[in-house]
Amino acid sequence: MSRIGNKLITIPEKVEVLIKDMTISVKGPKGELATTIVDDRITFEINDGILTFSRTSEDKVVKSLHGLYRSLPLQEHPVRDGSHLSLAGSTSH
Q1: How is the chain split into domains, by residue range?
Q2: Residue 87 reports pLDDT greater than 80
Q3: Closest Cα to residue 83, out of 26, 8, 2?
Q4: How confident is the model at residue 86 (pLDDT cuts 50, 70, 90)?
Q5: For 80, what's the count of Cα atoms within 13 Å in the CB-facing half-sphere?
Q6: Confidence (pLDDT) at 20
Q7: What is the homologous superfamily of the domain 2-80 according to CATH?
Q8: Measuring CA to CA, which residue among 3, 12, 2, 29 is closest to residue 73?
Q9: Using DSSP, how many helices (H) and how many strands (E) does the chain show?
Q10: Which residues of 40-60 are buried (b: 16+ CB within 10 A; e: fewer)?
Q11: Bridge-partner residues for 26, per DSSP?
């Protein structure tokens, strides 16, 4: 999962991403989602409209968490497109 963690997330137009403490909030025309990163070995920041995630260790568990946490904000489709995906990955209608 570490390769997933290294991919950058370009924030689309009409989508606002806010970082407060360890919570990432994604808000767009179709709604909003939020997730909290509960492991301080994973860091994240927004620069020039790009959300990036970093890890503090090359440990296997940290690499896995890096990929996991990076994949969560990708669930921003509901706020942009109107799809009904949750941060947990389940679908609802």
Answers
A1: 2-80
A2: no
A3: 26
A4: very low
A5: 14
A6: 92
A7: Ribosomal protein L6 (3.90.930.12)
A8: 12
A9: 3, 6
A10: eebebeeeeeebebebeeeee
A11: 17, 33
Give the type of residue at 91.
Answer: T
β strands within the chain, DSSP E: 9-10, 16-20, 23-28, 31-36, 42-47, 50-55
Residue 76, φ and ψ in degrees, nearest 5:
-80, 0
What is the per-residue pLDDT across 20-51, written as a single tens digit (0 to 9) for each?
988 888 888 888 888 888 888 988 899 998 88
- Taken as a whole, the chain contains a residue count of 93
pLDDT reading at 74 higher than 50: yes
- Rounded Cα distance between 64 and 85, Å, is 22
pTM of the model: 0.69
